[in-house]
């Protein structure tokens, strides 16, 4: 039958076609190349290309690796999924129980700056979008225009009243990345600290913390992206924003 997997671990043609459509949509939404996805999923680019073109069905092994790389289920579940909780207009308690109107000021697009992990003298820049999700009833964020698209992050926004800070939380299969930001300045900028894992040689990952700045962008405005070096026109301005994290007491880096 075309809709079920065979004994050789290959999926049926209909199911493979549906999965290919989902993968293509994810690549477009994340602005991610097929090569980056293949590398992240540890499969050959040839295998991915043939599966997406329909000339070779997906195997269970390939599907599992793609699901891990994209951190989402690609197959339709065989059982009836649990109903999505109704949107309440309030974030869940573990994110601060904030309402959408109370957090509307944070919605928008931001130029995000942090030190480059590969070049200590450079600055790494990309875009971060923050918006309300009716489906999950919370603010969510998603990065874009990263030159290392395979490491694009997305997750939830937490805003507890007690601390007065904003937390951008990524949780992928138990692996966390955290950004702690100040409330916006009068210019709308937010400053704070990023804690994440830095990729080293081979499969080595090392915890790293760095200053980070979020600068508001006009909707749809172009943003600098990639590695900004000392000779680039925007470098001095971007460096001054990162320096504010320590100089103006937005965070203490020991």
UniProtKB/TrEMBL annotation:
Source domain of life: Bacteria
CDD domains: HTH_XRE
SMART domains on file: HTH_XRE
InterPro entries: Cro/C1-type_HTH (IPR001387), Lambda_DNA-bd_dom_sf (IPR010982)
Ranges of compositional bias, category Low complexity: 79-93
Region ranges (Disordered): 74-93
SUPFAM superfamilies the UniProt entry points to: lambda repressor-like DNA-binding domains (SSF47413)
Every HTH cro/C1-type domain range: 22-77
Protein name as it appears in the record: Multiprotein-bridging factor 1 family protein
Organism: Methylopila musalis
